[in-house]
Amino acid sequence: MSRWSFVGRTDELDRLLSAVTSAEGRGLFYSGSAGIGKSRLLREGVAALPNDRYAIWSIAASATTASLPFGGLVQVLPAEQPQGLSPAGILRWALDVLQQQAAGRRIVLAIDDAHLLDQPSAALVHLVARADNATVIGTLRDGEQIPLPIRALWTDDLVDKAELSPMAPAETAGLLAEILGGPVDAGSADRLGRLSAGNPLLLRELVHAASGSEELTRTYGIWKWTGRFELAPNLTDLIDTRIGQLTPAVRAVVELVAFGEPLGLQLLNQAVDRQDVEIAEERGLITVIQHDRRTNVRLAHPLYGEIMRRRCPVSRTRRLQADLAELLERVGKRRRDDLLRVAVWRLDSGTAQDAALLLEAAGQAFSRYDVPLATRLARAALDAGGGFDAAELLATILMFADRPEEAIDVLDAVSPDPAERQRFARWLTVRGMVTYWGLSHESTVEEIAARAESLTDSADQARVRAFEAIMRLHRLDTVTALRLSQSVLDRPAASVAARELARSTVAYLQAAQGQLRSSGTAIAQVHSEAARWRADMPYLQLALELARGTRLTLAGDLAGIDAIVADEFADLAGAGDFRLGTGYLAILQAYAARLRGQSDAALRTSLGACAVLATSRVYAGLAQAERAQAAALRGDATQAAEAMAEADRTQAPGMAVLYPWLEQARGAALAAAGDLPGAVKQLTDLVDRLRTDGFAGHEVHVLYDLVRLDQAGAPVGPTCSDGSRRTVAQRLTELSERVDGDLPPLLARHARAAVSGSPTELFAVADAFAARELNVFAAEATAAVLHRLRRERPAAAGEARERLAALLNRCGLVHTPALRAGTPTLTDREWEVARLAAQGATSKAIAEKLYLSARTVENHLQRIYAKVGVTSRAELHAALRAIPGHEGGDAD
């Protein structure tokens, strides 16, 4: 792991610097809990101040100097103090010393842990703060006794005081990426962030503890944490210091909350003495929270629970869990959550005997997409005699936990007689799901179709046909899939789950065919019935999300993608390790980032999807295809090719319906590698295939990729009756009248403008793209204008250049063939300036300065190379390493 970097805290750092540098600044003290990052923030602020303008003294107060007069300022005052001065005289002398050393510069006194200052040092700090040419900044720890002169700083209005809050989730993820040297899986970052409660010190100890085992792994460059870690000594010492010594009675309160949180206050008061609860709250060990109409108790910090649970003896742990279950059963399981909590406590305490309770709890856990918990409960229900129902649920959960072989064993052990028609229908569909998607057996479709013929009950047959329909959709037998789905929807006896599964199949097909309005209506219907199908078929959510995601991506609805990535299912799937759900949502998120031009986020998120789906072949190929697109956007041909090779390797035969995404990505990878003829042929062939399959929604986007490769006027499709062929622009215009939504007409408009070469029309198209946040498309259209104007009317190219720079400022690193081809007359310098501006420079002028600075450094390097007799930095490193006692570390 690398050294911890300073991440986030931008607003806090700006406020600290403003307290020193602005005309209104009057000093600032940040307070907060231990390890929250106060000291690091103060050091970063001091480091940012120029020494030629400020006389800066940094003081780190400590308990060892707190009893010594001026011990806190020993780093800045002379070792010898004048003799015979009164206390007031010594203070005046010390202030004069600081003024002399400042030599006319403004004094900045930065005190870390100011609560540990001795009284004379605190008095001198107060005196300095009153000086006209001085500013005092510092940190304080919550809950500590503060010297009166320091407290008077803000009560006398000499400085401001602010609380430093825990790091935000995004900042925590950024800090994790810095320390680990690469991005962290979103679920892992969220769990580590919650456990550390946004405290950088605790986060560091958690990462150290996890990295010392095999619980922190890296896949496709993405770090993932299993959620388990060793209780390293540093971590336990930190928590022990916070918890302190506990009486047996108070410990009982904390232990009950640790095993039961969130625990109702009324329930807790029935189990322990109310006074002990109050003591635990006063000491900051527990916190009381009002939630709806229930008053709940939680531990004040998530790590308290980890420590208490792990240190509690097994026998007492089981007793506490059994006591909690009995308490809740005694008062009555009033909320839906209560049944699940009782079942878990019964299971963990070894007192679980009710198979029906365990089975119902397993269903609840699975409906929340908590796969690990649902697996435990369903297996316990089966072991307790839950029979076929428990086996069916367990096998289903195992399928979504990427354990299909185990699922088959469980199902085959309870294979029902075909005469048990309803049970046989359910067994047939679950076994078909496992063999088709889990084991990639395409023959499953025919097997299910044949065996469904023996079913006589209309509801049972509808369930099986709904599954057969979605399997046929995924293997690209779309005509049969649609017919079967319609037959299910036409059956009054079909269950809600069977009907909505069939409707999801129809919704997906409608989206692929360009019937986006009808698809949206069907998706809304499925979603509205969720409460009725989720208990029976929670995995139907995947079919719903695939249909909804396909519709939104083909519509170019980036705001809609943002909404579903942020909804309840995303949170539940992430918390419950439901990888198919989180993986697919990450693919959608990467797609939206890519179209916005946020290339870093697109690549990082797509890599995360690849890592999450690495053990599941259902969406693995799709994730790799999106990774290839993100890499191609950045001009990274090598990674794009690697991703396509992985897509081909991992793409499941039973997911053939996803071919448009994979083949479109293949075209992008070829273009990124410079093989434009190959890319054009790939996309042209794909257009023909999509036209044959009737996937007009996809065809629109592939045709537009041809426009981006300057093929708007190229022929495409079959020969017409007059012997001619339609051009890409003509075919897009034709489809824009058939495919729903306002994006196809815009794409067709761009194609026509590309053929005509009208700068006015291309500018209008670019503005329309930008309004939809389709920044890459907007930049490419603008680059085409710039190319034409520079060639035909150089004096008029200024507006296009400014527009292009503004659009690139919205993007990360974007390096597409359309941008390069559209501006071939841009010099290397102009491209580098644009790239620097896109990576964060606030203006073209700043980008020019950055470019000139980089060129100056490069010129110096070339002179150094010539003197040393090397031609590159690598050779310079090698030459330095060859010197005895030198490891080449200073080469940079």
TrEMBL record:
Picking any one GO biological process from the record gives: regulation of DNA-templated transcription
Q: Name one GO molecular function term.
A: DNA binding
From which domain of life does this come? Bacteria
**One Pfam family of this protein, by short name?**
AAA_16
SUPFAM superfamilies recorded: C-terminal effector domain of the bipartite response regulators, P-loop containing nucleoside triphosphate hydrolases
Q: Which UniProt keywords apply?
A: ATP-binding, Nucleotide-binding
Q: What is this protein called?
A: Regulatory protein, luxR family
